[in-house]
Structure formats: structure tokens, C-alpha cells
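Reviewer comment 2.1 asked that we show a complete input and output for one of the modelled complexes. We chose the S-adenosylmethionine case, as it is the one discussed in the main text.
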Amino acid sequence: MDFNDLVKLYEKKKEEYGEDAYLHISAMLKEAKEIHKKDWDRSPTPNQDHEQSWRAFKGKNLENLIMHIIQDEVEELGLKIIDGNHLERSEGKNLEEEENAIKRNLLVDYGEYGSHLPDVDLVIYNPRTRKVIAVISSKVTLRERIAQTGYWKIKLRQDEITKDIKVFFITLDEDKTLSKKEPHKKGRAIVEVDTDGSYIMSEEQIEESNKVKKFDKFITDLKGLINEVNQQTIAEEALKKEVEDERPPVETTTLWDYPKQSYGKKQKGDNKFQGVTPAFIVYNMISRYTKPGELVLDPMCGSGTTIDVCQEEGRKVIGYDIDPKRADIIKNDARKIPLDDNQVDMVFIDSPYGDNVNYSNEPQDIGKISAESQEFYEAMEQVGKELYRVLKPGKVLGWLIGDQWVKKRFTPVGFKIYEMLTEKIGFEPVDIICVARRNQSSNTGVWHYRARKWNFYLRGFKYLLIVRKPSVDAQTPEVKEDRKVNWKKYK
Ligand SMILES: C[S@@+](CC[C@H](N)C(=O)[O-])C[C@H]1O[C@@H](n2cnc3c(N)ncnc32)[C@H](O)[C@@H]1O
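Response of the prediction step:
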């Protein structure tokens, strides 16, 4: 009898029991022992001890059989298995990209002494998530590896990336260290306390526990573990998605581009309202320039985007509009704001930038005044002065505004408003953000055709003008706070 005969026996079990073949390994070993005995009877070993001869045979061949069976079963579970020694010996550049990722996810960190792989024979991982699920050490007797296996479990447990990796030991337990619970042997104690389990490949009886079992149970346990890991991964992915959906990123450059108007589970503002503001802009403004509990004002609140974002982020908010669309928006002309001086922690305003949109029938609607007329800038100056008055010193105003191109005439509305805010009213410049426009009504084939034919440009962006009311001692809070950054180097 040789290794191939053992594999044939296992394949026969597979034919008989299909995917449950692994549950019959012990029975298979009994059969193998009988066949081995018949062979041995024909030419017995000189010492006349079949038991000893069978143990020697197992020692030589069963380790390979374990690999064969595990590989087979693990791949049926949609996982992959890789030789730990191959990972250990190969340099990063000689490993496949997937193998490299697995290696990184298994390294134990020794600080200044580098990172090193644990000594394991097999690594089971999920090729989709590249998470290592379990590592296996396999030896004929326990003594050869068990203390090391316990050590690796302790080390893996210490790191966030590796803490959930299960550490198993598969053995033939030739010296019978594991087969009895009592008296307590050191090897069994290590297995029980410092590994995730040891599986014994034997045809003989053993006293099982939660941690010490016959190999027949290994695949069942692995299936349970995969279920657990899958549940955990689903939960982690759901949480990640929820967080991503719920909170947009805080922008780091002056170019902002939003493919949709709102984010998260709750709609912010009304995306059918003509001129609705992308909620991301309000989120970014309040994230940078206010703290929870502070008061935000939107004097031209439209469909209420600012109110919805602020409420979700724990900011107090007041929304006015000349033609309120919701009960929580107060009717008011932005040129006269019913608040005392120095009350507000931040203002966000997305104003009309000409008479291109019909917001309401209200005569006071500034959206009825052409941006080519002086009257428009006078109205905006009145608004700007009111915003300056109600803002607390040192606090920020964000004003979203677009330029105008009508009837072959370009009007740089954004520049004019920025100049008015900083030169006439006394705000300090903070920055200008370019916000890409995506859903404007001119974003159609015919308008793109006209733009080329008549040699003009369609509006591709709006400005988010950011200015600050000077603080009392004329030094902004940011300048005081951001000492660690070497601003001279930033270009
Ligand atoms: C671009 S929309 C604001 C969009 C809003 N941020 C939103 O997300 O729905 C401009 C708003 O300014 C308002 N408005 C125009 N003139 C006003 C005035 N004099 N005082 C207050 N609001 C005015 C319009 O009624 C309109 O709702």
C-alpha cells in the first residue's frame, strides 16, 4: 500500500458520499489499516509489530493526504489555499499580486525588527476579499510544532489586521498527547488555551472537546467559520457603504464636482426645485467652518437644502426666502435680515445670478433683475452688508454664484460679487471654489452645437466665494490654530 492507494480510497469515499466524504476519514483510515495489514501479513517486518509498521506508514503519507483533502474541500467552499512556505521563501516581486496581498495581510509586526510571516504550512484565504481566514500547521506528532503554533496565535491576535485569523493544528498525534483529557498534558493545554483548535487524523477513539476533535469535523468547522466571516464581511461592507452614503468627503482642492444633488438616506432639499443647491456644498462648508451646535443662516433658502444638511449635522439653522417653499422657511427679503448684529456662526447663500430663472412671482425677488444692470449689484450689496452685520467677527460666508452669458454678452457676475464683498463691504478673501455644473438646461446637444457654431461657451461651473468677516483683533482663528503646517512651502 502507498500514498496513491490512500488517495484512491479517499476518492472512493467521495464517489460514495459526495461533498460529505470528509466526514468518513476515520472510517477510511480503518479500511486503510486493514489493507495495510493484509499486505504486511504477506511479508511482515522482522519485529513482527504491525502497529509500529502502520504508524510509520501513516507518518510518511498522511500529511500529504491531509493537504490533498483540505485543498479539495477548501476550494469547493470558494476559498483558496496557499503553501505558507512558498509565501515565506518568495520575494514580493516573485509573487502574484493576489499572493502578495495575502502575504501583507498575514505579516506579524516586530517594530524596528521588521515584519515576519508566522511559520505555518497552509494559508486559507478568501480570494474576493483577500482576507486570510485560517492558517494551519500540520505535523505527525504534536510535540514538533504545538508550542510554536500557540505562539503564532498570540502574535496574530495582537494586530488589528490579523486578529481574526484562526490558527489550527492538524496532526496524526502519534505520541497520543491529545487523545486523552486527563491527566492534563502540556501539549493539550496549549491546544485548548492558545489555538483555535487541533484536529486529529486517526482511526482511533479520542476524548474530544471544543478545541480537540477528530479531523472528520475540520471541514464542518471551516464551513461554520466561513459563514461567520461572510456574515462579518457583509456587516462590515454594509457599514462602510452606510458611512460612505451618509457622509460625503470633505474636499481638499478648489475643484468640486458632484454627479448628484443629494447624499445619504434622507433627501436634502428638493432636487426638482430649479436652482437647488448640491447638498455636498453645504456639507463641506459647515464641516470646515462650523462646529456642532453653532448657528448657520441661509437668507435665500429655496427648497431648504441648507436646513436639511444642518439639521442632520447637528447645527442650528435659520432659513429665509422671499417665497418660502416649506413651513420651516421664514418669509423674508434678504436685504433686511431680522437678526441682531454678530449672531451667526456661518452664512451660506446660493443667490440668483441674473434673471435667468423664474423663482417666484414676488416683486422683491432679486432673480427678476438682470445681472447686466446696476440695480442687481445694488441689491446684492444690500444683502452682503446684512450678512456682514449678522455674522460674528471671524466667521465665514460662502456665496454660490454663476456668471452670465446672454444674447452674446458675457457678464463676470462672480468677479463682481467677490470684489463687492471684499473691496466695498470689508470681508477678507478666504478662497474661491470652482463647482462643476452638470444639470443645467443648456446641457443638451443643440446648445453644444450652438456654442461651437456661434463661438461662445456654455457655463461649466459656478463659483463658491468664501470670505470672512474680520475678527476683532484682525487675526483669524485658523491662523492661530494651524501652527503645525509650514505654509511657506505650500504653493
Ligand atoms: C438658487 S435658489 C436657492 C436654492 C436653495 N439653496 C436650494 O437648495 O433649494 C435662490 C433663491 O433665492 C430666493 N430669493 C430671490 N430673491 C430673494 C430675496 N430678495 N430675499 C430672499 N430670497 C430671495 C428665491 O426665491 C430662490 O428660492
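The first helix runs from residue 3 to 17. We note this here for comparison with the apo prediction described in Section 3.2.
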